[in-house]
Design brief:
The complex is a heterodimer of chains A (314) and B (252).
Chain A: E1 3-6, E2 9-10, E3 13-14, H1 16-25, E4 31-36, H2 41-48, E5 53-59, H3 69-79, E6 85-89, H4 92-104, E7 110-113, E8 115-116, E9 121-126, E10 131-137, E11 142-146, E12 162-164, E13 175-181, E14 194-198, H5 205-218, E15 221-224, H6 226-230, E16 251-255, H7 261-264, E17 272-277, H8 283-287, E18 290-293, H9 296-309
Parallel strand pairs in A: 1-4, 1-6, 4-5, 5-12, 6-11, 7-11, 14-15, 14-16, 16-17, 17-18
Antiparallel strand pairs in A: 2-3, 8-9, 9-10
Chain B: E1 2-6, E2 9-11, E3 33-35, H1 37-53, E4 57-64, H2 69-78, E5 82-87, H3 94-108, E6 112-116, H4 127-135, E7 139-148, E8 152-159, E9 162-169, E10 172-176, H5 188-194, E11 199-203, E12 215-221, E13 230-231, H6 235-251
Parallel strand pairs in B: 1-4, 1-6, 4-5, 5-11, 6-10, 7-10
Antiparallel strand pairs in B: 2-3, 7-8, 8-9
Classes of the chains: A alpha/beta (314), B alpha/beta (252).
The complex binds flavin-adenine dinucleotide (FAD) and adenosine monophosphate.
């Protein structure tokens, strides 16, 4: 039973989610890690050191660097016959690619998996996480996307061999014409240990600086609600929830967030939740582990100063 | 240009669903149903493309039980010209839905298929990508902007690190994200007019697609509940709680 994991990487760096994917499935069989793109030498080296990885396959050339789904799927479809499991992270790339691959292979994929209960039994949330579905598949091959935050990362081990992948040249009919990258010096939101989230009540992009400042003090990633993103206060890739990123930090600090169903969908895996809100009846206040009721504009600056006084720094 | 829009009838996104105690599923009897929110954005995008391009025909299709004609009527009221219901009482898997839609594409020959990026009941996020694969068409998922160009479309997509704009030739499949547009609320005259627009109801068997499920749903269970925590009295107390949590993390 061999496993193929599509490595997630960005700017020449292996994303932390990949170690979690490998950790999640290493028990199912030896893992081949597939790295596609240009300038991925370091990605391959780092991937090779994950415990459970038997080989790293590096595919380069053609349109692969652009990461367009038709070319990625062409490569994956060529490799598929050799594997019992093919998986990717449940991020933008995995979600784009895996269902396309599945239809090409006439298989039903199982996506957003949060638990693996044996060789062919998987648990995935439905209805924005308000129910959990246990799915059993008797298909020949399992195509999965996993939520990285639900799994522990693989440890580091002996370096596995790195092999170039021989594949037919792939060309995409689509073309990338522009990209807008959100500048960021904070940890990866989907796998961060601490996340500070801001809601629409933060009031402006300027106001979000306050949230970022609190984030910085704690070495935390910054998240936002859809309402805050729609209002233009925060970039789209900060959105947490049913439609955004799924997070499972050890600590989530929600500032001025009501806790709509669709936002809660993204934070169910958080170990501890702290809420700052002016409304004691807000749904998020009702389920947080610790709550401070009051005005965020008064509380957050004091909190930053107080954390500094207590010597909290990460 | 001819645009096909796929819309799904789902439990209204404001309803707090209840898992049946016997684990057999989610209670849908007597629950308010409506058009999947992402599909509304897809319909709105089609109408806006038609308005911008002068001449476009918009056909909406839904796979579901008879009452799913309601969501087709909503789309017709928003500006689509014609509707097709592929009627089935079964809850079909996404692959089967994609295969049915591929049949409709073969009949209708649209230049563009618009879908929602995900259905808020099964949260699958599959059908658009599957349909694109079956048709061997290019896809642009999670669209937050669509413009028509001489060569085809330019679509801005929301991705993990920001936004990316791709140029696609037509025909193509595009799935809508929530920031694509603000769906209109159809005015009463449009709602009245929708009732006189053509709406074909066709049994699922007519399409000759093998609908046998590939997966077995073993159980549906509620997520674990969170217990209410404690309310703190001051910022100082809050800072200490956070400092303790951070210390616990560092200790790991
Ligand atoms: C299909 C669909 C998908 C969606 N997906 C997502 C998603 O992925 N993520 C997401 O977040 N949302 C999503 N939403 C939107 C969601 O339903 C809510 O509208 C949104 O989460 C609300 O954001 P908010 O908490 O910032 O705003 P609000 O609900 O307006 O809450 C603001 C909160 O701030 C508090 N407040 C106000 N002033 C202050 C102050 N001065 N100090 C302290 N507290 C204050 C208020 O008491 C209130 O609790 C989705 C909606 C739909 C229909
Ligand atoms: N039963 C259905 N009938 C019509 N369109 C559907 C159906 N199910 C899914 N779709 C389309 O596919 C999109 C994604 O759904 P899903 O892959 O189920 O999350 C939806 O937003 C619809 O546009």
């Amino acid at each position: 039973m061999t496993v193929l994991v599509l490595a997630e990487h960005d700017l020449g760096t292996l994303s932390p989610s990949t170690a979690r994917l490998v950790g999640a499935v290493a028990a199912l069989g030896p893992v081949d890690l597939l790295v596609l793109g240009e300038g991925v030498d370091q990605v391959a080296l780092d991937g090779a050191r994950l415990a459970g990885v038997a080989r790293v396959l590096v595919g380069q050339g053609g349109d692969l660097a652009a990461g367009l789904p038709d070319s990625t799927v062409a490569v994956l479809a060529g490799l598929a016959p050799n594997y019992s499991y093919i998986l990717a992270s449940a991020g933008a790339t995995g979600r784009d690619v895996m269902p396309r691959l599945a239809a090409k292979l006439d298989l039903m994929p199982i996506t957003d998996v949060v638990a693996i209960g044996g060789a062919n039994r998987f648990v995935r949330p439905i209805y924005a996480g308000n129910a959990l579905q246990t799915v059993v598949s008797d298909q020949l091959r399992h195509l999965l996307t996993l939520r990285p935050s639900a799994f522990r990362p693989a440890a580091l081990g002996e370096a596995a061999p790195i092999e170039p992948l021989a594949h037919a040249p792939v060309a995409s009919v689509a073309r990338i014409i522009a990209a807008h990258r959100t500048p960021s010096d904070s940890p990866d939101l989907s796998t961060a240990q601490i996340v500070v989230g801001g809601g629409v009540s933060v009031g402006s992009a300027e106001g979000f600086k306050l949230i970022e400042q609190l984030g910085k003090a704690l070495g935390a990633a910054v998240g936002a609600t859809r309402a805050a993103v729609d209002a233009g206060y925060a970039p789209n890739d900060w959105q947490v929830g049913q439609t955004g990123k799924i997070i499972a930090p050890d600590l989530y600090i929600a500032v001025g967030i009501s806790g709509a169903l669709q936002h809660l969908a993204g934070i169910q895996g958080a170990k501890r939740i702290v809420a700052i809100n002016s409304d004691p009846e807000a749904p998020l206040v009702k389920l947080a582990d610790a709550v401070l009721i009051g005005d965020l504009f008064a509380i957050v600056p004091q909190l930053i100063a107080e954390l500094d006084r207590l010597g909290v720094r990460r | 240009m001819k645009i096909l829009v796929a819309v799904k009838r789902v439990v209204d996104h404001n309803v707090r669903i209840r898992v049946r105690p016997d684990g057999s599923g989610v209670e849908t009897a007597g629950v308010r149903m409506s058009m999947n929110p992402f599909c509304k954005h897809a319909v709105e995008a089609a109408v806006q493309l038609a308005e911008a391009g002068g001449d476009a025909e918009i056909v909406v299709v839904s796979v579901g039980p008879k009452p799913a004609t309601d969501v087709i009527l909503t789309a017709l009221a928003m500006g689509a010209q014609r509707g097709v219901l592929i009627q089935t009482e079964a809850e079909l898997e996404t692959l089967a839905i994609a295969k049915l839609l591929a049949k409709v594409v073969a009949e209708e020959q649209p230049d563009l298929v618009l879908l929602g990026k995900q259905a808020v009941d099964d949260d699958s996020n599959h059908v658009g990508q599957m349909l694109a694969a079956l048709l061997d068409w290019p896809q642009a998922t999670f669209a937050s902007a669509i413009t028509r160009t001489a060569e085809g479309l330019e679509v801005t997509r929301e991705v993990d690190w920001g936004r990316v704009t791709v140029a696609l030739p037509l025909p193509a499949v595009v799935t809508a994200d929530l920031r694509l547009n603000t769906p209109r609320n159809a005015a009463l005259p449009m709602v009245m007019k929708a009732r006189s627009k053509p709406l074909a109801v066709r049994p699922v068997e007519d399409f000759g697609v093998d609908l046998t499920p590939r997966l077995r749903i073993e159980a549906i269970s509620p997520p674990s509940e969170r217990a209410a925590g404690r309310t703190l009295g001051s910022v100082g107390e809050l800072a200490r709680v956070i400092a303790d949590d951070v210390a616990d993390l560092e200790a790991l």
